[in-house]
Amino acid sequence: MEINGYTRICGVMGNPVEHTMSPAIHNTLAEATGENLVYVPFHVPTGHVKEAVEGAFALNVLGCNVTIPYKSEVIPYLKEIDGLAEKIGAVNTLVRLEDGFKGYNTDMPGLYRAMCEDGVELAGEEVIILGAGGVARAVAMLLAEKKTKHIIVMNRTPQKAEQIAAEVNRLTGTDLVEAMALADYTKLSEDRNYLCIQATNVGMFPKTEEAVMEEESFYRRIHTGYDLIYNPIETRFMKLVKQSGGRAFNGLKMLLWQGVIAYELWTGKEIGKEQADLAYVSMKKAMGIVE
Ligand code: NAP
Q1: Does residue 151 contact residue 140 with C-beta atoms inside 8 Å?
Q2: CATH number, domain with residue 171
Q3: Nearest C-alpha to atom 34 of ligand 1 is from which residue?
């Protein structure tokens, strides 16, 4: 594309930010939609988030993604925050308004969109979330809003799972979420009843031979395993789900769709399946994934 006086800038703020796949997604979408827009990484040093947000606005930046470790830290510097992002307590997308940025969370809508694409139902489902970190909390919030029947948060540190259950139940006015220690999995129904979302970082590159749960009798209860990890593309968790007769997915499509939804917010353009597929191919190429 030709960069000229009308070119708009978007980017991603983070630290570190050098390994981001987002430029591949957004620059492909800009080309596919004919938008005069470039997307670049912004390495923001510790302690400079306020200046980064204000500086980006002053420089007429159209929009920004926010990644580790700033997803919560940016919130005080926003003009507005979307309701879902506020409940989740994490913002990964800044959208330019007249007088500042509005913060959104596209990670959870991205996960939902990815699950729809993969044919994974949520309504009426019994769901296990493995992990009780920032992402697990957001997933519990998403699931509570998508009419799931029951949500069990299982974590190595049970107190953290209990905190999530109490908080999500309070925020959603439900009693859908229950906490359980990993070791108590035998209390689960023995039927193949569960969708299991893997939201710990166990099994992530380079420790690809690890899974947070090893017991075959746990995996026999799972009909669908959804790992949020995307490197490696097949985790040990996914292998164990498949070995026990379930189907399994990785977090690549979540990564794609969080980006597509941010792009739609910035440009007001709706991204079709063909354009999203192009971005998916670029993203996988940037990651060195050959299929
Ligand atoms: P986090 O806040 O650091 O939470 C990590 C979780 O993993 C905690 O529940 C922790 O348990 C558990 N854990 C870590 N090591 C463990 C071990 N050895 N045994 C048992 N449990 C262990 O992380 P996060 O920000 O929520 O991210 C979680 C995952 O989501 C990451 O793998 C990340 O790659 C993935 N993610 C994917 C996308 C995407 O687009 N696909 C986007 C965002 C995040 P304790 O509480 O007991 O310490």
Answers
A1: yes
A2: 3.40.50.720
A3: 229
- Dist. CA 131 → ligand 1 center (Å): 6
**71 catalytic per annotation:** yes
Cα of 253 vs centre of ligand 1, distance in Å, is 18
State how far the Cα of 272 lies from the Cα of 138, in Å rounded to an integer. Answer: 26
Digit-coded pLDDT (tens) for 122-155: 999 999 999 999 899 999 999 999 999 999 999 9
Q: Examine the domain organization and report whether 258 and 229 are in the same domain.
A: no
Using the mean position of ligand 1's atoms as its centre, give its distance from the Cα of residue 203 in Å.
Answer: 10
Question: Which amino acid type is present at position 177?
Answer: V
Instruction: Tell me, yes or no, whether 207 lies in a domain.
Output: yes
CATH number, residue 278: 3.40.50.10860
List, for residues 233-269, the tens digit of each pLDDT value. Answer: 999 999 999 999 999 999 999 999 999 999 999 999 9
pLDDT tens, residue by residue, 53-88: 999 999 999 999 999 999 999 999 999 999 999 999
| CB of 156 shorter than 6 A to ligand 1 | yes
Cβ burial of 208 (10 Å; 0-12, 13-18, 19+) is: middle
pTM metric for this prediction: 0.94
Nearest CA to ligand 1 atom 32: 201
